[in-house]
């Protein structure tokens, strides 16, 4: 424990050091334009200037000649020296942004310039939650996001998720529930009476909402939920009830602190008959945030991350709401209890219709995951170009990004991030322009599931690898990998566990699967430098895995279907689903690069090639044992991949600059001047520190 006087002294020193550095070092911090970079070098930190101030112990040490030498290490200079872009970075940003470029620029500006967006670390859970809400409110007040975007500009919803996740994943999680899961459900399943009452307040956050699907006992198997909404003809009300502890609504985002409403998904009973799962609006707090009678809200408390998100458990004790609270676009209940529905088929289909918002939700999650993967890579690669350690002479003079270890770990992740981006753009377009006759809907559902799973796993791998490859710096909260890893786990679990979604992908692909003759095999003149051949190889793998799965399911017959799928062949099910996703991603990347400006194509071809080789390398066991690749060709895969990593590495920083993140959006010391950041006592915070 520090004594009170020591604490005062510490605070005093910190203030002095911060003020003196701030005055001495007014640094312009956006790296992306070369003009800004030139400005940066004009205002390059000069530690001698700090002498004229009454210095803290930390800055006084800067006078020591030895330390002065060490502080000569200038991360900005090292980054500039890493390698000039071989392509037009702003053109690449335009390509990666895909849509809403102007709006994205304005969004980046507020995320960069508004002081509220500066990260804060050592704060209480209550402060974290209030900060996440305040940040979201700021974006809403500026009109950056509206639930009506689903009608007017649906792609913007996803763009906002991607960029916001770079700055605050907790705020973005609250945003996705407010605007997609809650707002989108009210918009799409509700009718005029719900819209008139709620849409405006959803945009302004005067009406904060939740999406109450998951129950303690029923997560991935939510269709079995127990919560009931029973129609009472006498009073023309629904009685919403939680019959058992397992039926508690669980994990409900925005529920613990901020929400006024929840869409409760419940088994709808009329005259003792279950009509399946429907969404009913239930007020849970009044405008002053007093909890409504009959509603019990339990705060789920501290989590492994994203503690700015307030998650809750809900109990409903026979809570009565008016008949009009049923979201009644597709199914309705008349005053006398007559039930009507436009949804054809089994009552399971009614569940699928009400859970429709999960589809765009999966695109929101994939977009958030991509924002976080890009941020991790930008931070890790900037640091890797500026962290000097042992060189050929034993001196600390070699950026770790020169090492093959670093390149082989990070370049494939960069290639995968680009690849997923192009596939995600394609899938978002397909989702936004579905045929009115529903003919492509099933395909869109499968693509939304596979991209959510692959992007969710990818951000986890990226966050973990970047953290490790940045050493101890990677472990500090202020360098942000921890936040992105926490987000990645939410991405993997929320809105459908990734592996469970992959089962759905495999089922749906198997239903439409038609075996074809293998195109790329060991005997087809294997050429690992030929992207067309590699694409054929990926197709052949998918073809073989689905053929094999199909045969096993045929053999199992109707009787053995569940047993074979769930207890015997899970590895095959997962591998088949992944082979579809990876083939699709590679295909989308190929199409996008063919359409790209010729100036961008050389580097994109390298990345595409590296993506294909990475996929093959990771599944080399299958390629080698299935006869798709000879042992001789298989033995070359590692070398070809490593060569590509070496070729991509000089462009790595420029490829990250193309993500279009400002220094302030990243706001991680190791992505900026980490030497200057560490020259003073900053207590691990970035707020108020100029670096
Ligand atoms: C940060 C966060 C926010 C959330 N916000 C909301 C919200 O606002 N509203 C809401 O309704 N829900 C919310 N959720 C809940 C989320 O949707 C569920 O956690 C998710 O659907 C998984 O359910 P579960 O946790 O009960 O997992 P379970 O269904 O218990 O699954 C646990 C594990 O069991 C295995 N498993 C389950 N089913 C199968 C199967 N069929 N085949 C093989 N293996 C299987 C898988 O390994 C799975 O990971 C949130 C969750 C998180 C983490």
UniProtKB/TrEMBL annotation:
<keyword id="KW-0274">FAD</keyword>
<feature type="domain" description="Acyl-CoA oxidase C-terminal">
    <location>
        <begin position="537"/>
        <end position="672"/>
    </location>
</feature>
<dbReference type="Pfam" id="PF02770">
    <property type="entry name" value="Acyl-CoA_dh_M"/>
</dbReference>
<keyword id="KW-0285">Flavoprotein</keyword>
<feature type="domain" description="Acyl-CoA oxidase C-alpha1">
    <location>
        <begin position="358"/>
        <end position="506"/>
    </location>
</feature>
<keyword id="KW-0276">Fatty acid metabolism</keyword>
<dbReference type="GO" id="GO:0033540">
    <property type="term" value="P:fatty acid beta-oxidation using acyl-CoA oxidase"/>
</dbReference>
<feature type="binding site">
    <location>
        <position position="214"/>
    </location>
    <ligand>
        <name>FAD</name>
    </ligand>
</feature>
<comment type="similarity">
    <text>Belongs to the acyl-CoA oxidase family.</text>
</comment>
<dbReference type="InterPro" id="IPR009100">
    <property type="entry name" value="AcylCoA_DH/oxidase_NM_dom_sf"/>
</dbReference>
<dbReference type="InterPro" id="IPR055060">
    <property type="entry name" value="ACOX_C_alpha1"/>
</dbReference>
<dbReference type="InterPro" id="IPR002655">
    <property type="entry name" value="Acyl-CoA_oxidase_C"/>
</dbReference>
<dbReference type="InterPro" id="IPR006091">
    <property type="entry name" value="Acyl-CoA_Oxase/DH_mid-dom"/>
</dbReference>
<keyword id="KW-0576">Peroxisome</keyword>
<dbReference type="GO" id="GO:0005504">
    <property type="term" value="F:fatty acid binding"/>
</dbReference>
<keyword id="KW-0443">Lipid metabolism</keyword>
<dbReference type="GO" id="GO:0071949">
    <property type="term" value="F:FAD binding"/>
</dbReference>
<dbReference type="InterPro" id="IPR046373">
    <property type="entry name" value="Acyl-CoA_Oxase/DH_mid-dom_sf"/>
</dbReference>
<dbReference type="Pfam" id="PF22924">
    <property type="entry name" value="ACOX_C_alpha1"/>
</dbReference>
<feature type="active site" description="Proton acceptor">
    <location>
        <position position="495"/>
    </location>
</feature>
<dbReference type="Pfam" id="PF01756">
    <property type="entry name" value="ACOX"/>
</dbReference>
<dbReference type="InterPro" id="IPR012258">
    <property type="entry name" value="Acyl-CoA_oxidase"/>
</dbReference>
<dbReference type="GO" id="GO:0005777">
    <property type="term" value="C:peroxisome"/>
</dbReference>
<dbReference type="GO" id="GO:0055088">
    <property type="term" value="P:lipid homeostasis"/>
</dbReference>
<keyword id="KW-0560">Oxidoreductase</keyword>
<feature type="domain" description="Acyl-CoA oxidase/dehydrogenase middle">
    <location>
        <begin position="210"/>
        <end position="319"/>
    </location>
</feature>
<dbReference type="GO" id="GO:0003997">
    <property type="term" value="F:acyl-CoA oxidase activity"/>
</dbReference>
<dbReference type="InterPro" id="IPR036250">
    <property type="entry name" value="AcylCo_DH-like_C"/>
</dbReference>
<protein>
    <recommendedName>
        <fullName>Acyl-coenzyme A oxidase</fullName>
    </recommendedName>
</protein>
């Amino acid at each position: 424990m520090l004594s009170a006087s020591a604490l005062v002294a510490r605070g005093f020193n910190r203030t002095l050091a911060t003020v003196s550095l701030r005055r001495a070092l007014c640094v312009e911090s956006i790296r992306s334009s070369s003009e800004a970079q030139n400005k940066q070098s004009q205002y390059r930190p000069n530690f001698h200037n700090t002498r004229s101030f009454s210095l803290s112990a930390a800055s006084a040490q800067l006078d020591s000649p030895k330390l002065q030498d060490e502080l000569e290490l200038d991360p900005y200079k090292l980054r500039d020296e890493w390698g000039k872009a071989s392509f037009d970075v702003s053109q690449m940003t335009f390509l990666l942004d895909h849509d809403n470029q102007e709006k994205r620029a304005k969004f980046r500006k507020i995320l960069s310039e508004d002081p509220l967006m500066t990260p804060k670390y050592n704060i209480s859970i209550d402060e974290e939650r209030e900060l996440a809400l305040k940040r979201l409110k700021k974006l809403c007040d500026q009109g950056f996001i509206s639930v009506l975007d689903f009608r007017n500009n649906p792609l913007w919803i996803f763009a906002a998720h991607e960029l916001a996740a770079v700055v605050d994943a907790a705020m973005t999680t609250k945003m996705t529930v407010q605007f997609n899961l809650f707002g989108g459900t009210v918009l799409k399943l509700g009718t005029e009476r719900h819209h008139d009452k709620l849409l405006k307040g959803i945009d302004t956050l005067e009406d904060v909402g939740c999406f109450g699907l998951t129950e303690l006992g029923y997560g991935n198997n939510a269709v079995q939920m127990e919560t009931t909404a029973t129609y009472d003809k006498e009073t023309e009300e629904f009685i919403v009830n939680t019959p058992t502890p397992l039926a508690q609504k669980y994990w409900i985002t925005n529920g613990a602190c901020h929400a006024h409403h929840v869409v409760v998904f419940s088994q709808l009973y009329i005259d003792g008959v279950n009509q399946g799962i429907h969404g009913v609006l239930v007020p849970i707090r009044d405008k002053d945030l007093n909890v409504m009678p009959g509603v019990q809200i339990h705060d789920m408390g501290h989590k492994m991350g994203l503690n700015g998100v307030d998650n809750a458990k809900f109990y409903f004790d026979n809570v009565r709401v008016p008949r009009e609270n049923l979201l009644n676009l597709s199914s309705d209940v008349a005053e006398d209890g007559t039930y009507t529905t436009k949804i054809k088929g089994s009552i399971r289909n009614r569940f699928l219709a009400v859970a429709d918002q999960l589809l765009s939700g999966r695109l929101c999650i994939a977009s958030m995951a991509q924002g976080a993967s890009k941020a991790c890579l930008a931070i890790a690669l900037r640091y890797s170009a500026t962290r000097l350690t042992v060189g050929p002479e034993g001196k600390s003079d070699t950026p770790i990004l020169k090492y093959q270890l670093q390149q082989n770990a990070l370049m494939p992740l960069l290639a995968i991030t680009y690849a997923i981006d192009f596939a995600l753009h394609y899938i978002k377009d397909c989702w936004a322009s579905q045929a009115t006759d529903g003919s492509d809907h099933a395909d869109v559902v499968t693509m939304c599931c596979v991209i959510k799973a692959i992007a969710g796993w990818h951000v986890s791998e990226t966050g973990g690898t970047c953290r490790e490859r940045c050493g101890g710096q990677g472990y500090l909260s202020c360098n942000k990998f921890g936040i992105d890893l926490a987000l990645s786990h939410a991405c993997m679990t929320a809105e459908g566990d990734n592996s469970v979604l992959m089962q759905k992908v495999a089922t749906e692909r198997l239903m439409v699967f038609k075996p074809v003759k293998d195109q790329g095999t060991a005997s087809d003149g294997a050429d690992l430098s030929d992207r067309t051949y590699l694409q054929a190889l990926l197709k052949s793998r998918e073809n073989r895995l689905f053929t094999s799965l199909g045969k096993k399911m045929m053999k199992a017959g109707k009787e053995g279907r569940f047993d074979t799928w769930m207890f015997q062949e899970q590895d095959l099910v997962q591998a088949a689903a992944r082979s579809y996703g990876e083939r699709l991603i590679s295909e989308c990347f190929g199409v996008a690069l063919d359409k790209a400006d010729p100036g961008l194509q050389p580097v994109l071809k390298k990345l595409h090639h590296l993506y294909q080789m990475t996929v093959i390398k990771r599944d080399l066991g299958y390629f080698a044992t299935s006869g798709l690749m000879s042992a001789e060709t298989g033995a070359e895969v590692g070398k070809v991949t490593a060569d590509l990593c070496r070729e991509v590495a000089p462009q790595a920083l420029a490829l990250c600059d193309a993500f279009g993140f400002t220094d302030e959006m990243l706001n991680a010391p190791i992505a900026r001047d980490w030497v200057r950041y560490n020259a003073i006592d900053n207590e691990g915070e970035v707020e108020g520190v100029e670096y």
